[in-house]
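FOLDING PROBLEM:
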Amino acid sequence: MKNITLFFLILVSTAAYCQKGPKIEFSAPDNTIDYGQISKADITEGTFEFKNTGDAPLLITGAASTAGYIMVTKPVMAIMPGKKGKISIKYKNMPTGPIRKTIIVESNAVNEPGGRVGLKIKGEVL
């Protein structure tokens, strides 16, 4: 009985790991840009770089910020397997004080629940 249970567990684990399709992997640790303490004049733009580690074209269908002063630009074309892309961010009239914002990226990636991933921006604007 233990052998059957172990076999089933390995089978389910392998099936989940071997998903076919596009996969998105961001290079920023924990999908976060941490600016630390920064002056208002020094913070104008940022970039989240990612790679399609899957075996099908990756489509970024949406990218939106939770703050009106952050403008997000997503790739228009599909990112082919093994290729890199970027989500660009521009800040306009960033308020002073602590920043804790999220950018929601929507895609056809099979390694993220519903193809959605949250990117975080944190720091303090002096």
Remarks:
- Residues 22-125 form a domain with the Immunoglobulin-like fold (CATH 2.60.40.10).
